[in-house]
Amino acid sequence: MTAAPAVSVIVVSRRRPGPLRRCLLGLMQLDYPACEVIVAADPPGLAVARGFPVRTVAFDLANISAARNAGICAAAGEVVAFIDDDAVPEPQWLCHLARPFADPLVAAAGGFVLGTNGISLQWAGGTVDRLLVPGLLALPDDAPSLHRASPGKAIEIKGVNCAYRRSLLLGMGGFDPELRYYLDETELNLRLAALGAVTAIVPEARVHHLKAPSDLRHGDRTPLDLAMIGASTTITLRRHGATPAEVAHAGNQFASEQEARLAGLVAARRLTRAEADRLMATLRSGLAEGAARALAALAPLRPETAAFMPLPARTAGTVVLAGRPWQRARLSREAARRAAAGQVVRLFLFGPTALFHRRRFTDEGFWLHTGGLFGKSDRADPWFRFWRFSARLRRESARFSTGYGNS
Q: What domain count does the chain have?
């Protein structure tokens, strides 16, 4: 076993300067001794990044794989970690995510992804085979676990919350630049599977993913175009040995799944029938284009020789503020003031109700936890439970530090 490694955290951002700023505010609160942050972004993103002690890479193409590769080449850490610009890590994220790399057998690690309410799971872990069929993975929710992949069946970790040994990614050619959007991490995980790589799943390495709008989707995930998703699907299948018949079958199955999804959006009046038909046309066009595109072999990446640029040590400590919803304005001002001074701030506001709890990282840089004093903050909680304010505060404050489990 070796000491915890130096880590380069890579953030790719394009046309989302607001979410990027919030992400960087969260990264500045990381409690990890050897961490640098690299932002690969367009001009608006670079303008935001210049306000933080990070390294920047100018990148303004709509190709997340190529942008991540640019970050890998610029990185100087032994491990490279990835987080999306519309996600925020909890302060202990990197301590947990990097720890498995003390074992030299570990090639990659992935953490849990929390959804909009900051409590429910958006992603934990799973498997995926060479035909892109997902599978379940038995996981404890309170301790890391190691999983060895096998050729054709990968351990699936998500690009919003993952880490890899940098030397391994350099030699493998990083992410496939033909996958400009969608399945980029899946395809990489399948290449790792061909090596029989060991991946750690780390429940306490948590990020909060808010799914900001982009050129290809609205903030509620309603799609604007499905061509890139279609192309990435058939390209990934081809990269991993699918025959033309298997590509066609998997593509048709994927199209059926997407058609059912769009029908649900039409029923919910989030799309018109004409819009759904247009989206299906873009998907079929993408599937066909990906099946016909010439694919070059992936070549090793060429690293740069930049020096490691660690974030300044965080010394201001952590503070807990608490009160009632009608005290929100005053307490929020105090939380923002303390966050601007460098403290990690947790603000808890409990009303005299049974409302479910929510947790989020604000644009002002503090963690806000709201809900009813008697409401649920975990799937296993009863719908109503009597609490005294002080006892509820102790419980939720402790859970913030130790984990929410599969709520």
A: 3
